[in-house]
Every structure is written in C-alpha cells, then in structure tokens.
Amino acid sequence: MKNATKGTRYNMVTYAMVTAVFLVMQGLLLAGKVSNSLAGQLIPICVYVCMAISLNLVVGILGDLSLGHAGFMSVGAFTGVVVSMSLTFLPPLVRLLLAIAVGGAMAGVAGVIVGVPVLRLQGDYLAIVTLAFGEIIKNLLNNLYVGVDKKGLHFSMKDAQALRLKDGTILINGPMGAPGIDKLSTFVVGFLLVLVVLTVTLNLIHSRTGRAIMAIRDNRIAAESVGINVTKYKLMAFVTSAALAGMSGALYALNYSSILPKKFDFNTSILVLVFVVLGGMGNIRGSIIAATVLTILPEALRGLNDYRMLIYAVVLILVMLATNNPILMNNLTLLKKKLRGKGKGGASHG
Amino acid sequence: MAKRKSTTKMVPVPSDSIVPERDLGRAPVLETKHLGIDFGGLTAVDDFNLTVGATEIAGLIGPNGAGKTTVFNLLTKVYEPTRGAILINGQETAGMNTVQVNKAGVARTFQNIRLFNDLTVEDNVKIGLHNQVKCGTLTSILRLPSFWKKERLARERALELLSIFDMQDMASHQAGSLPYGAQRRLEIVRALATNPSLLLLDEPAAGMNPVETAELMDTITYIRDKFQIAILLIEHDMNLVMGICEGIAVLNYGRIIAKGTPDEIQNNPQVIEAYLGKQD
Fold first, then answer.
1. Distance in angstroms (rounded) separating the CA atoms of residues B130 and B197
2. Closest chain B C-alpha to A348 CA, distance in angstroms
3. In a domain, B1, yes or no
4. What is the CATH number for B232?
5. What averages of pLDDT result for each successive group of 10 residues across chain A (350 residues)?
6. Most buried in the list A205, A310, B136, B144, measured by CB within 10 Å?
7. Domains of chain B: total
8. HSE of A43 in the Cβ direction (CA atoms, 13 Å)?
9. Domain span including residue B122
10. How far off is chain B from A184, nearest CA to CA, in Å?
11. Are B190 and A226 inside 8 Å of each other by CB?
12. What is the pTM of this model?
C-alpha cells in the first residue's frame, strides 16, 4: 500500500496546511490583531483559492485550456444573490448555504450547456470558444432583470419596468448588477467551502474517474483504446469544475453589498488562470498557495503606491522563471529529500 | 538462442484462411471480409480477408508501408473502413467506435508507445481496468466503503497483471521514466487489463535485444495459454514471428499476398520477392 498511503499523506498535509492557516487567522481575528485591509481580504482569498482549485481540475488534470471560468463564477454569484434575497425569512446561515448550493447547481447546468458543444474542440480552439462563452454569460447577465414581490420571482431580459413588480424589490438590475445584497458571507463558511472544494477535487483525482480524466490528458487515443468514454469524462471534469466555481461565486457575491456583471469578465478568468499556472498545472496545493499569495500581494504592496503593479508583475515573472527552471527545481527536491531524511532521524516532523 | 518453431496443426476454414485445429469447435475471434480503406484516392488496404482462431497466435508481416498498422487501426476503429466487414466473436462491428470495439473484446498496443506518461505504472494498469473494476464518481467523491473495496480490488488485479512481466516492483514508478523495453511490456499489461478476447500487438519486440525478445516470445505464449485468448501481432523480427506464430498473413501494398504456416510462408516465392525483390 506504499503508493496509496503516499498519495493519502500528501492530501492530508494539504488539508492540515489549510486548516492550520485558518485556525491562525481565526485566532488573530478574535484577538483583534488583523489589519482591516487583510480582514477584508479573507473571504476573497477563500473564493480565489476555490476558483483556482476548480480551474486546475480543467486546466491541469483534464489538460484543456479554459478561458471562461469567471462566467461560471458569475452564474453562481447572481444565482446566489437571487436565492438569498428571495428567502429573507430564513436565518442568515441557511440563506448563505442555500445560495452556495443553488449557485453551484446552476453553474453546473451552465457547465453542461457550454461543455457539450465546446468539448468537441481541442487546444487553441477550445480556449477561444470558452473565452467567448465567458463573455456571452457576462453579456446575458448584463441584460437580465430579476425582481421579487409577494407573488414570487419575476424575470425579464428587457428592462426593470417589464418586471411589473408590485411593491417588490429589484434583485438584479441589468448592467447595474445586484444593488442591495445582504452581506452574509463569513470567513468560517469560506474556509468550509475551501475544504469542500478541496475534498471533492482531491477525491475525484484519486479515483477511477480521476484516472480516466488524466488518461485522456496524457494520451487520448490510448485512453479510447482501453475503453474510456472520452466525451463523458471530459464533460464530467468540466461540469464539476463549473459547479465548484459557481459555489465560490455565490460566496463572493454575498461578501459585498453590490456586485456588477462586468466584475466577472475576461480579466478575472485570466487572473484565476495565473494562479493555476504559477501554482503548477495539476498541482492543487500550488494553486492554493498561489491564489493566497497573489491575492494578498497587491493589497500588501499598497503602501508602495505607483510601484505596486510593477512589483506584482516582477514577482509573477520571477515565480514563472523559478518554477520553469529544471536545475532549481531539481535542487529543491534534493533539499526536500535531505530535510525529510533528517526529520526521520530526529523528531517526527510528519 | 535456440530456434523455435510452432508445431500447431493448421486447418483451412471457409473464407480462405487457416486456423489451429484445436479452435475448430469455437467461433473465430476475428473475421474480416473484403476489408478496405481509401485515403482520398489512395487505397491503403484492400480486400483484406483474415480469420483468427479463438486461441491462435497469428502474425501479420510485410515490408514497411504495406499497411499493417492501418489494418490494426481499422480493427480498432481508429479509422472507419471504406469497404468490407469486421466480425469480432461473430459480432458485426459496423457503427461501433474505438471504445465499443474495446468493450467487444479487442485490445491493442501501439507501434509508437502510447502510455500515460505522467502517471505511475500501477495507475496505467488501473486505467486499463477501467471497465473491469467499476466505481461510480459520487461513491468515489464521498469515499463510501465500496470505493475502498473497489480500489483494493483494482490494485490487486493490477499487481497480478504486472507480475506476468515481473514488473510488480515497478508499480510506483512513473510510466514515462521506464526503460523502452519495460514501456512496451507495460503497454501489453495495460491492454490485457481490459480483458480482451483478441490482443493486437504492434511490433512488440521493436527496440528489444535478442535476450529480451526471447523472453517476450515466452511471455506471449504464456499469455495465450493462461488467458486463452487470440493474439494477432505485427512484427519485423522474423525469429519471433516464425517462432511463435501459428498462422501468418503477408501484406504488401495493402493486399494479402500469402497466408499460411511459418514453413509455407518462408518458402513462398511471392513473399521472398516482396521482401528481397525479384530475382533475375
């Protein structure tokens, strides 16, 4: 069972790392030792960690470049807003959890709708079409009007008047986005969502389904020759990824008092892709670290004013050079082995 | 290295082929009828008729570019035939795709090795077991008890199959890092994992030294005996072909020019001409 335990141990370390960071942050929060700017970033960090993990499932594990991941995030976000704001009679935590669940489900449905035609393509073509779909979803939301009154939900693709609300509230107001959201998201739920996303992704990867998905990535023709239904498993990875992105989108939206559809544009998709690429394709732990560091970094550098984005860019380039340098990575693995060897001789470092 | 020669008694069947006498009572595992494919105006394979008995080791030989691999690609539906029919265990395969053909019982290896290079040796075999040991996605994500049971079963089966080639100690190695010969063997194990009734081997001895080739010959015979399956192989190593194949078909310019036992093939003037050119 050497191999199985090795994989399991790696996963356990990842869970432990995430939990430890959460406990430290939670402790500091309770002690009031966290700066306002960092406290405000905790939930976005959770969101981007989830986004990076879920995108890694498509880009790293399935091996298909998707440039429209923010589209699924937005589906989850606006679904989450509608769900939470139309169920105001429920306790806040239930509203939040329901918003995340339904947001994920709707994003999953969007994943099926987009995935069926798109996954026939490969490589650059797939990237271009997912990019287009991301923009299409954004534009659809730009023209979506949703309101709620005593009769229930009203939808329109025309304008706010067409909703014909009788003293109700407008939940989504086209390009003006969702104006009055109750800020329901909490850091604890954010952390739990990270754990859920992480568990789903890692369990999926280390299973028959995950092996089939990676087989398609490594060699499609060989995968077919051993009886793996390529379309089915590609779609499964894509839809799971979309659903997880939708869940993080709902958490994201309910962290603000208002959100705009244009927040979820191409730039957000690329931002998440940067996390995945810098963390390492297929490397889930790397995605978590990259998403955390690169979300904090621009804020942490705020004191440097004009040089902020310059330093951010330089850091990106340096990380890219370092992770793509075989000699450096080789030395790093050797160093790791040495440290591990010493750890076994002395105290148990896990 | 001792020269071996198969001593199977071959008997003719309708469709102008021969099969081992012991397979007469059983339906042939493979039967092709006037199989052909055109690429644009070029006819790559034409009028290809071959019957492979249920436990036969058959060879497909021919000069470079004769269309041998194309025949494999037709049999596994990588290409859709332009003409003719392929019957696997008596079942017509028209309209089937690669996945369905595999489920019907055909597994193959590739001339240019196609392993899942980033995965471990064990995972490569487990992927071969995909349709043999099944476990639902939701069961896997929730890590239900049946998931662990299935994983254990898959692992046992994988190690058992790897032990055919004495490779169980390499289970945790990365497939892409294996030596060439081991990669070829791993491909055979992976194909076997799909529980085929017909195993197609595309140049299994390519790149192997004479000692490895001799071992491979033993192993191929062993696989046939243990699993009671048919094996059709493409090979340029004549020691291997003449040593273990019971029936041989020779392909030249996409057409079968001779069929017979190793003895008959070795002395067939048309075959000699195809390989060595015409004698003046």
1. 16
2. 25
3. no
4. 3.40.50.300
5. 62 93 93 88 96 96 93 96 92 96 97 91 87 92 90 84 82 88 93 96 95 96 95 96 97 94 91 90 93 88 76 80 77 80 44
6. A205
7. 2
8. 19
9. 113-195
10. 28
11. yes
12. 0.89
